[in-house]
Amino acid sequence: MTAPGVPSIASASRSVRRDGEALRVAVFGAGKAARFHLDAMAQIDGVAIAGVCTPSGASAERLAKAHAGAIHTKDPAELVATRPDAALVAVPAAESPRLVRLLLEAGVPVLAEKPAAPTADEAESLAKLAAATSTLAAVAVNRRYYSLVLQALAAVRERGPIRGVLVEGHEPLELLVRSGNVGSAAARGWHLLNSVHFVDLLRLVGGEVASVAVAADPRRLPNRSVSASLRFESGVVGTYLAHWNSASPPSMKLYGDEVTAEVELGQPEAAFVRFNGKRRVKLHPDASDVDAKPGVLDQDAAFLRAVSDRRSSLPFPASDLADHARTLRLTEAIFA
Questions:
Q1: Is residue 329 part of a domain?
Q2: Sheet containing 47-53: which strands, arranged edge to edge?
Q3: 248 three-class SS
Q4: 3-class SS at 269?
Q5: What is the CATH number of the domain that holds 211?
Q6: Any idea what the CATH number is for the domain that residue 34 is in?
Q7: Under 8 Å CB-to-CB from 256, ≥6 apart: which residues?
Q8: Number of domains the chain contains
Q9: Same domain, 275 and 262
Q10: pLDDT single digits (tens) 180-214
Q11: What percentage of the chain carries pLDDT values higher than 70?
Q12: pLDDT band at 22 (very low <50, low <70, confident <90, very high)
């Protein structure tokens, strides 16, 4: 339940049927990210899994068998040939562009896990293809849909424009590598594989970037110390700060007129709003962030509802391929 005095953000509708029929969703990938989406889609009325495609793996076959009528195949073209209504692409970044391109060329609306491509240039190329084929294409950056993030945004905007945003993207990469949860190849690209989430939150608040200045420690991975000062075309002034392995959790802070909102982005998430006069109000997550991985349920429901309604674009806070390409370009600039 939202705290008194703080505007509520309504969860996305959980019904996406089209003309009374369920939407058939093709799933590419069977890892942890794909399972998060499948768990969320299981709570959305009107979703049927058309099939699961991976190069190999018993886990993918089990996922397919768990959904009536779903096929398991190693051939992406075979799954596309079943004419799904929409597709989820949750594969490694290097493999993603080929699958996204295949789907866009077939006119299949696609939700691609971040990053949708290994570089901003590749993402931009995909965005141009989506525009040329008039095909809906969104990127899964679920922190945009965190109910606490959206409540914080609404609370500050209710009292006037947002003046500034600070995102602290500290990450325990050394611990993740040491534990075996992150391999050496993933560690080298960690800024695109995960830090992009925190950079994306800057753009969610500020919009298009007018200028950026970066100060960084040149030490090699797994250590990073980066500070970036940004000015957005909207007038918002932003700061990105990351001291990896500092044991500090990631967070976002919004500055407005006589109000400040702060969201702790660790596990579990927490948030509060501080008003002039030092009144402090705690925010509470919506049910959608309790029923599934935070942000995923509302994000997937919004995408599938747009597919059901045959819309060509997604409303705020969604990120399409063109928007995602700009986030990737900013990430590349910050971590250059």
A1: no
A2: 71-73, 47-53, 23-28, 86-89, 110-113, 137-140
A3: coil
A4: coil
A5: 3.30.360.10
A6: 3.40.50.720
A7: 156, 157, 159, 160, 161, 162, 163
A8: 2
A9: yes
A10: 888 888 888 889 899 999 999 999 999 999 999 99
A11: 94
A12: very high
More confident residue, 150 or 186: 150
Exposed, middle or buried by CB within 10 Å (0-12, 13-18, 19+), for 92? middle
Report the C-alpha gap between 116 and 137 in whole angstroms. Answer: 10
The verdict on 122 and 244 lying in the same domain is no
Question: Are 127 and 153 within one domain?
Answer: no
**250 shares a domain with 191:** yes
Q: Please tell me whether residues 206 and 131 are part of one structural domain.
A: no
Residue (of 200, 137, 205) closest to 165 by Cα position: 205
Spatial separation of the C-alpha atoms in residues 270 and 285, rounded to whole Å: 8
Q: Are 319 and 144 in contact (CB under 8 A)?
A: yes
Cis peptide before 249 (omega within 30 of 0): no
Range of the domain at 116: 1-144+287-320
The alpha carbon of residue 296 and the mean position of all alpha carbons in its chain are separated, in whole angstroms, by 8
Across the range 297-311, mean pLDDT stands at 95
- Asked if 68 and 105 sit in the same domain, the reply is yes
Say whether both 116 and 236 belong to one domain.
no
CA dihedral of residues 114, 120, 121, 123 (deg, nearest 10): 30
One DSSP character per residue, 220-241 reads PTT--EEEEEEEETTS-EEEEE
197 membership: H or E segment, kind and range: helix 196-206
Per the prediction, the chain carries an average pLDDT of 91
137 contacts 109 by C-beta, under 8 angstroms: yes
- What is the spatial distance between Cα 30 and Cα 36, in angstroms, rounded to a whole number? 10
Long-range CB pairs of 274-281, under 8 A, 24+ apart, other chains included: 281/3, 281/4, 281/5, 281/6, 281/155
The string of DSSP codes covering 148-181 is: HHHHHHHHHHTTS---EEEEE----HHHHHHHTS
